[in-house]
Every structure is written in C-alpha cells, then in structure tokens.
C-alpha cells in the first residue's frame, strides 16, 4: 500500500513538473538523429522489438522539433521493421508516410530507398508489377540524381527481374545489358546469383539453350557457395521450367525438388523468426496505433502541459516539500516490499512467456496433425488415383510408352514421398496402435551399428490414452531421442516407461559426453526449454541430470489423460 502511494505521488509530480523541466530533458537534434540511427542498427541486427521502440521514440521527438528529414527516416525504419516481420500492409503504409516527409525534406537519397522498397512490395507481395516497375523507375531516377552507382545497378536488376517475371523480355533487355556492363565495378556478391539467373532466363527466351544452361549452372554453383538462398531457390525454379520446356524431364524434376526443399527451409526460417518475435506479434497492432497517433498526441499533450504549467507552478513547490518528507518516511518500508513486488512481477512475466510458448507449441502440433491428415486423405489418394487411371488407360489401349512408364514411376515416387511426409508429421503407428507401439518403433528406427536404443516398458503395448496426450508425449520423447543422436556422441541409450498412480514416468538415459545443466545456451540449443514448457503445461515434472563426460539422464512425470 505504501509503495502504491509512493508511486502515485511520483506520477503526480512528473505530470506537474514535466512542463517546468522539459527544456532540460528534451534531446537535441543530434541526439534524436543518433536515436534514429540506433533504431536502424537494431533492426539490421534482427532486434525488431527494440528497434520499433527506439524508432517510435525518435519519431515523437522529431515531430516535436518539426525535423522532416528525421521523421521520414523514422517512418522508413518503422516500415522496414514491419517488412522484416512480414507485415506488408503496415510496411506499405509507413513507407508511404515516409515518402511524404522525404518529399518535404527534399531528401533524394531517402526517396530512392523508399521508392525501391515500395516497388518490392508491389512486385513481390501484391503482384502488381505495373505499379512496382513504376516505383522502381522512380527509384532509379533518384539513384541517378544522387550519383549512387551501386544503387543504380541494384535498381536496374530489380526492374529486369520484374519485367522477366511477367515475360516481357523485350522491355527488360536494356536493363539487363546495363547490369552486365557495370556489375563487375559497382555490383556486389548479394546480386551475383540473381544476375546469372536473369541472363539464363534471357538466353532461354532467345532460344540459345547452351548459354542459358551455362548461366543457370553458374548461378546454382554461386548460390550453393554463398548466402543468397532465396535467389538460389528462384534459380532452381526457373531452371526447372526451362528444362521442362526443352524436354529434360529428369533434370527438371531434380531442380523442382531442390526449389521445394529450399523454399521449405526458407519458410521454416521465417516461422522461426516469427516464433522468436512472438512477443512483438502480441503488441504489433498497438505499435501501429501509437505511431499513427503520435503527431496528434504530441500536439494535445503540449497544449495540456502549457495549461498545467501556468496553473500549478506555485502549488508544485508545496507538493515537492511534502513529497520529499513522504519519501524519507516511506523509504525503509518501500525497501522491504520492493523484493516481494519484484518476485511477483517475475512470476507474471514467466507465466506470460510460458503461455506464449505453449500456445505456439500447441499450434504447431495441431498444424502437423492437420497437414498430415490432409496429405494422407487427399494428396496421397489423388496420386494413387492418377496412377491407377494411367495404368488402366495403358492397359486398355495396349500402349507401351517410356513416357507413360516414367510418369507412373514419378507418380509412385510422389505418392511415397507424400506418405513418408505424412508419417513423419503424424506417425501411422501412433494413430493406429498408440503411444507404446510408436515409441518402440521409434527406438528401432533410430538404432544402427554405431548407436543402439533399448526400449523398456512395464505398460501393456495395447494401452491407449487420450489422442492429444499421446501425440504430445510422442513428440517430446522424439525430441529427446533426437538430442541424443545429434549432440550426445553416445553409443547406447535407454528409453523406459512406467505407469504409477495414474502418472506416466519416462526415463531417457545415454552414455554420451553430457553437458553443463547450468549453461543456458546449451539448454536453449537442445530445445529443452520448449520441452520444459510442454511438461509444465501438462502439470508434469521434468528433471535433467548431466555432467561433462558422464552421460545424461532425463526424468519426466506427467498425469495421464485417459481416452474418452
């Protein structure tokens, strides 16, 4: 209670005295620009939440001093953060606002970037290529105006790609020739894969297959060596189309498979990024509302502060005196209650974080189940039906064709891959026979000449529990076994299960190298935090015992959810 009174008095003092001392607390223009630059650095480092907070603060100060250039820069940073978080509508909105202030400030360099970013959204996200090309060309005009040769080459590449994407090779040809001429001097490694791909597409259009193949192969080689995996995936896709058009079906299929693998990996990284910024997603609309209202809020606040300043100057001196007296009297009691309040806050934050993790995990598990059922019940059935119809057709018409046989083989392989993926997402043994059959089979699958998993259970293998409970426990154990395989360096491991007093006891042991259980980075790297969150959500217990060079032992105890 004393702490609450103390905080209320502090709040009252800050409201009354903010107008009086505002001239001593307002940052200078240089400090505001540095704050904006810090927001940009945080964004480039992937710290999007911190970047949004810094850029929002810098925007408020920039509006206060009416610095259009810094306002435009702040809006660009805010938009870029939303762009990185795949919130393209919000990014588009703030790029537009940034462009408005960049025009006021006559900042050609910033206008160059804003037009380019808007062109990216129109082409890659909205698929409105006509508008995208218009914005790219505006960006190119400003690149030329400021004499930025590097950006000129980069924007020419974007325009070429946009034209080639819609099949307008004639319009894109001059821009491609410009890039080929100047890329060695003003280009960089980040665009070399895309440049080779665009040349390959161009020579494919010109019906010069040897040159096209050479550029495609070079783009793939450079992409495998470098970090531009997104451009590499597009290269595999375009190469597959080219090979299919030219009758090389086997290699076309290989490149299509490579494109699918890379796209899946990039999609997985995107999902990881979103999981890592789950906290931002909860507040992202709040950021938007606050940023939209900063200008209005600032004017209203400034007006109110002036009024309060004129009314409360005399009263404030008395309040300060009273406040100082209360602070002295309350100090000792406040120190005693501070620790309790901090502990309570930590508990709340921990619960919030755990709820976020649990919501993410539950969503992933439901999505796995949904995708697995869809693949098994729909895609797999369609592929089998297609193969059957093809076989009946060839039999009735007595046609023996190499192309038909290859098509049947491709359909069979596709069916097998879909079936394998469905089983990987949701093992058929788990859904048909239950947890214990599935875990026994998991141990057998992971055992080999260098690594042996021993399975032990006192529970009847025919025992069935609640479907969701079995699925959660299966994926928890699978994650633990994967950790043994990937990280332990063990030669043998044991999985044992025991049912006691309506609780399931699970013990996973290995004779590997072990690790320091106090090392947070190791715990995080093994995914044990997520396992802990799952167990907590099930009202269970998780105990990890491990030392360096002494193996690892994991004990899990969870209340059993029986089948309905």
Strand order of the largest sheet: 1-2-3-5-4
- In this structure, how is the largest beta sheet organized? 5 strands, mixed
Q: How would you spell out the order of helices and strands?
A: HHHHHHHHHHHHHHHHHEHEEHHEE
What is the averaged pLDDT score?
79
**What value does the Rg take, in angstroms?**
31 Å
Which structural category fits the helices and strands?
Answer: alpha+beta
Portion of residues within helices? over 70%
Could you name the ranges where pLDDT drops below 50 across 5 or more consecutive residues?
1-24, 278-283
List how many beta strands DSSP finds. 5
Question: Alpha-carbon distance between the termini?
Answer: 49 Å
The DSSP helix count reads 20
Q: Beta-strand level of the residues, as a percent range?
A: 5-15%
| Shape assignment | flat
């Amino acid at each position: 209670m004393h702490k609450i009174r103390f905080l209320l008095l502090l709040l009252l003092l800050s409201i009354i005295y903010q107008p009086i001392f505002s001239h001593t607390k307002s940052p200078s223009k240089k400090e505001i620009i540095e704050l904006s630059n810090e927001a940009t650095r945080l964004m480039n480092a992937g710290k999007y939440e911190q970047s949004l907070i810094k850029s929002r603060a810098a925007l408020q100060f920039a509006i206060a001093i009416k610095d259009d250039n810094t306002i435009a820069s702040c809006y660009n940073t805010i938009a870029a953060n939303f762009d990185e978080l795949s919130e393209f509508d919000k990014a588009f909105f703030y790029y537009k606002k940034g462009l408005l202030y960049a025009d006021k400030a006559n900042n050609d360099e910033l206008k160059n970037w804003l037009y380019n970013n808007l062109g990216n959204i129109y082409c890659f996200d909205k698929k409105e290529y006509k508008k995208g090309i218009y914005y790219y060309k505006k960006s190119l005009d400003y690149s030329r105006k400021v004499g930025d040769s590097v950006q000129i080459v980069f924007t020419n590449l974007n325009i070429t790609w946009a034209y080639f994407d819609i099949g307008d090779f004639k319009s894109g040809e001059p821009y491609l020739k410009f890039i080929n001429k100047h890329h060695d001097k003003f280009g960089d490694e980040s665009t070399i894969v895309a440049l080779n791909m665009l040349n390959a597409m161009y020579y494919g259009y010109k019906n010069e297959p040897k040159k096209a193949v050479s550029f495609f192969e070079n783009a793939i080689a450079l992409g495998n060596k470098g970090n531009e995996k997104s451009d590499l995936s597009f290269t595999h896709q375009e190469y597959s189309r080219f090979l299919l058009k030219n009758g090389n079906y086997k290699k076309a299929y290989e490149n299509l498979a490579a494109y699918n693998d890379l796209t899946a990996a990039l999609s997985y990284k995107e999902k990881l990024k979103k999981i890592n910024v789950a906290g931002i997603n909860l507040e992202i609309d709040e950021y938007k509302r606050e940023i939209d209202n900063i200008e209005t809020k600032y004017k209203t606040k400034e007006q109110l502060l002036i009024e309060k300043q004129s009314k409360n100057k005399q009263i404030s001196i008395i309040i300060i005196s009273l406040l100082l007296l209360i602070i002295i009297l309350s100090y000792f009691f406040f120190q005693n209650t501070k620790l309790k309040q901090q502990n309570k806050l930590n508990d709340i934050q921990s619960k919030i974080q755990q709820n976020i993790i649990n919501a993410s995990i539950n969503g992933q598990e439901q999505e796995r189940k949904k995708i697995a059922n869809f693949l098994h019940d729909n895609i797999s059935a369609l592929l089998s039906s297609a193969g059957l119809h093809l076989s009946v057709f060839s039999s009735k018409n007595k046609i023996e064709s190499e192309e038909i046989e290859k098509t049947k083989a491709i359909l069979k392989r596709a069916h097998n891959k879909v079936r394998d993926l469905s089983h990987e997402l949701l093992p058929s043994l788990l859904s048909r026979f239950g947890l214990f059959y599935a875990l026994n089979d998991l141990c057998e699958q992971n055992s080999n000449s260098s690594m042996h998993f021993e399975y032990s259970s006192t529970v009847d293998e025919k025992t069935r529990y609640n479907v969701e409970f079995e699925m959660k426990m299966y994926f928890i154990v699978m994650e633990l076994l994967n950790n043994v395989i990937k990280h332990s360096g063990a030669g043998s491991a044991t999985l044992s299960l025991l049912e006691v007093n309506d609780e399931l006891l699970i013990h996973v042991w290995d004779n590997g190298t072990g690790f320091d259980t106090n090392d947070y980075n190791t715990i995080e790297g093994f995914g044990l935090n997520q396992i802990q969150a799952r167990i907590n959500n099930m009202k269970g217990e998780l105990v990890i015992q491990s030392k360096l060079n002494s193996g690892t032992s994991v004990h899990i105890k969870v209340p059993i959810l029986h089948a309905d």
